[in-house]
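TOKENISED FOLD:
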Amino acid sequence: MTALRTLRERALWPIDAFVDFFREWLRRFFEVQGFDRAMAIGAYAYSALIPAVIVYSAAVDNERSFADELIKKFDLSGSTADSLRAAFGAAPTAQSSVTALGILLLIVAGLSFARAMQRLYEGAYGLPPLSMRNTKWALLWLLLLGIMAELRPHLDRGPVTGLILSALVWLATPYLLLGRRVHWSRLIGVALLSALGMSGVGIYTVIYMPHAISDSAAQYGVFGIGFALLSWLFVSACVLVAAATGGAQITERIEHHREAKEA
């Protein structure tokens, strides 16, 4: 009877371990107030998007505007594409209208977005907040995002390459935003989950977003497009919150297992 019980426990061990891991992952997700955190990240990202579009349109002499890039990404046409151009198209006088105040607004909005992401990783790893003391690393992270946005179209040569590039970006993201307080090897789980999760968001974007933007634009015009983009950012932020808490949980499990073996 004891042997039968032992055999049964061994057979059920993988299921029990998975359920236990998922339960702890869920607990950590709610400990960082996952959905509230995702909404804050999405809102800060959206608030940084507008000044970024204005400054980018003025600084870069490009035949394709930011609106054209969104139209291509979401495969839009007709009145929906026209509404998107009205919302994000560059005005002819944009280059002369951007001021130092506009650039300052972009930096402030970008840093607010970076601090929202920073608080996520601090909560996931149980670290005390650095707040403004981490500004130099937050600025470096924003610079990294800008560089990758420019280089990725030239470096991405397929799904495998894209996944590797994404994983590298999501490895550097918590490393910088945590002020290098966590060794990069402890962030690999977060990086892999983030890269896989954002790949899923990419599939969601292709399948669902054209329909969502078209419906929102048809009903509410420019405001509907803004709401659809904010919803997309919220979904992306939820994935990042889940990846951060899940990656931290994976790291904790591995370290506990290693310590138990060494004991």
User: Anything to note?
Assistant: The chain has one domain: 30-122+130-262.
